[in-house]
Amino acid sequence: MDPPSPTPSSSSPSSAAAPPTPPDALPASYPMQSSVSNSSSTSPATLLSATPSSKSVADVQANGNGTSIIRRKITSLVGFSNLPAQHHRRSVRKGFDFNVMVVGESGLGKSTLVSTLFNMPLAPPRAAPYSSASAPKTVSIQSISSEIEEKGVKLRLTVVDTPGFGDLINNDDAWRPIVSNVEQRFDSFLEGENTYNRSKVTDSRIHACIYFIAPTGHSLKALDVEVMKKLHHRVNLIPVIAKSDIMSDEEITAFKARIRADLEHHKINIFETPRYELDSDKSMEEKTSIMSKIPFAIVGASSEITTPDGRIVRGRKYPWGIVEVDNEDHCDFVKLRAMLVQNFMEELKEYTDEVLYENYRAQKLIAMGVSQDQSVFKEISPSSKMEEERALQNARLQKMEAEMKMVFQQKVAEKEQKLKRSEDELFARHREMKQQLEKERRELESKLAQAELERHAMPEEKNTKKKFSLRS
């Protein structure tokens, strides 16, 4: 056996002769490093590009921010391709949680369908139907938890039932206990996230809500529309037509079309199968087939019966024939199970966590007066930081300049008003003085005229006196 090769270090000739990775070959989010660095500060991407034995194919793309993103496809074995196996090992060890709520009127087979989905009875047999005197006054919420195992995979299943829904005379507020229960579960999870030990938080959020529609064959009831409008922002809504075996294929097709039209008209969102870039044509075809069956026409039956040809199937036996639950020609149970359990259970949980719960959490925090500063999520770049600071400084200078202009204009306006008042006062004083002088002039002229009259009268008086003296 050959001796093991020594571990390369930063002082080995091979590592010293390796050319450094150019700056433009690093990912956009990778921090720039100096040209001289030791092996401890060298990133894995740098080692891959610097090692002659490893090969990679790079695809450079530019995002909307002008930053280059390098996507590399490694042609040599590194080992991180085993991450799915590691995730599978951890998931099997920890197990899975799944919470499903069933909403619908009594007698539509909610418990039977859930037992059929997971191939085991999850709830004890129901008691005899209640009389009118003992009928519940409101919708109640019942939660049943069970741990089931299949091929070594454990699932902690919680089924939330809503007995009493639609059974009252006045069902205007039938949605309130259901929505309140969903929001209470959100609040409980939010409170658990704020504790010091979040590892023990139990995920009690509703991951899927199966809404049962009565097989009337007409359209959605006003109660169905109102409840689904209240629920579709809080849960993944999956509508199903209960007991579809009482309708013909033509009636089911027409009923589905009316339900889809009502959902679109009232803008009610239902869960849709996600589409991914790596989906194969077969996977895309399967997803399209599942979505085309919504709302699912289902038949629930947990008992096994024997067909005339000797097969043992799950279904219901009627005088006219047998309805097989697992036969896609008879009902859509297989499609419902494929969406809810087999293919998209993790997507249901992911959408609940990342969209529905986050929206509720944001609304809750905003109502409490807590706002999020979105700037903390921005990538920090020295050049962009300088640009932002320059823009802030320019804005500050422009604001100061505008304030100085405003103050200057205000001072000028005040000075103009003061000068105008002084000018008006001077004009008023000049006018008064002119009027006074005119008055004095008129008085002097009148006095002068009086004096002239008196002067002309004085000689006549003297002549009169002289004449009188001569006669005497």
Automatic annotation (TrEMBL):
Record InterPro entries: G_SEPTIN_dom, P-loop_NTPase, Septin
PROSITE patterns associated with the record: G_SEPTIN
Biased composition (Low complexity): 8-18, 26-54
Domain Septin-type G stretches: 94-367
Alphabetized SUPFAM superfamilies for the sequence: P-loop containing nucleoside triphosphate hydrolases
Source organism of this protein record: Myxozyma melibiosi
Region of interest: Disordered: 1-60, 417-472
Major localization listed first in the record, in broad terms: other
Lineage: Eukaryota, Fungi, Dikarya, Ascomycota, Saccharomycotina
Keyword Acetylation on entry: no
Keywords: Cell cycle, Cell division, GTP-binding, Nucleotide-binding
Record localization: Bud neck
Record-stated family: Belongs to the TRAFAC class TrmE-Era-EngA-EngB-Septin-like GTPase superfamily. Septin GTPase family.
Extent of Basic and acidic residues compositional bias: 417-463
BP GO annotations: cell division
Name of the protein: Cell division control protein 3/GTP binding protein
